[in-house]
Target: Rieske (2Fe-2S) protein
Amino acid sequence: MVALVAPGALVACGSDDAGGNSGGNGGSGGNGGSSGGATALSDIPDGGGLIVDGPDGKALLVRNGNEVKAFNAACTHQGTIVEAPQDGVAVCRNHGSEFDTTTGEATKGPATEPLPEIPVTVEGDQVTFA
Ligand code: FES
Model:
């Protein structure tokens, strides 16, 4: 009934702690995306996108039909996670930067650098980070 989460005990991918409950499996906050590497294609709004846990922090998945692209969701200005896109634009609410989600390019500052693209593969209904 009490969740024990050890501060600083972030274990990214290892599992050498085979002794059972290492805690902290309750999602890391944010926008409620899927955890792990796979996301159902059908969970991503067609023509829109979704913030999920990526290989290196939060990732933005963008879908157009059966085509999916992924970008690191951390704003290239100061690292705030951008919002899921609408009409092909992902907005960072921190200072108002906007990113074109077909290319990742910053279309409105203060950010000037594009969101880095992350390779993904789509197999059936599963989208995984390559
Ligand atoms: S952190 Fe995104 S606009 Fe400043």
Q: What stands out?
A: The chain has one domain: 38-129. The pocket of FE2/S2 (inorganic) cluster is lined by residues 75, 77-78, 80, 92, 94-97, 110-111 (CB under 6 Å). Residues 38-129 form a domain with the Rieske Iron-sulfur Protein fold (CATH 2.102.10.10).
